[in-house]
Amino acid sequence: MAKLYFNYSTMNAGKSTVLLQAAYNYNERGMQTYLLTAAFDNRAGVGRIESRIGIGADADTYLPDDDLFARIAQRMADGPIACVLVDEAQFLSPDQVWQLARAVDDLRVPVMCFGLRVDFRGELFPGSATLLALSDEMREVRTICFCGKKATMVVRQGPDGQVAHDGDQVVIGGNETYVSLCRRHWREAMGEVLPN
């Protein structure tokens, strides 16, 4: 039975690695996958999903107003696919998450989304909020804070290394821009005075 999956975490947890491994496993068994990623995330090149550990794959890109149900239906008309894999799912619009849910229900194709749960301010991305509401299954991809505890938050650093407290929700960057932290160390980095 097809399901909508949301694999979420903070930065640098290996979400893209897990996506690429899933695609490899399907392809190794002779089953085709359909990979999608946000068009404006061009860190590895436009239409490219790449992991920090050096593996990658080409993907179709999506823009905020693309109809993903129609895109998946068209791709399925060109040949069977066993699974749709969506990277940078936090950038999906709420409407696009509903379109993915319709693809699961009406086209009976599994859709696995991989993305951030919260931004640098500790707020849900709109796409992530809708995925949390609609997904059949959710899985946390874990990473750790410098203290060894599970990291659930992320801070954004400016070029000067200072932690940002406001700004646009979306700024594309990697290890040079974002640091994953546990909630306590995120609070501390955001300027909250913590008891000893």
UniProtKB/TrEMBL annotation:
It comes from the Bacteria. It is an enzyme of class 2 (transferase). Zn(2+) binds at C145, C147, C182, H185. ATP binds at S9, T10, M11, N12, A13, G14, K15, S16, D87, E88, A89, Q90. Substrate binds at V170, V171, I172, G173, Y178. One of its GO terms (cellular component) is cytosol. One of its GO terms (biological process) is thymidine metabolic process. NCBIfam families: PRK04296.1-5 (NF003300). Belongs to the thymidine kinase family. This is Thymidine kinase. It comes from Ketogulonicigenium robustum. The lineage of its organism: Bacteria, Pseudomonadati, Pseudomonadota, Alphaproteobacteria, Rhodobacterales. The gene is tdk.
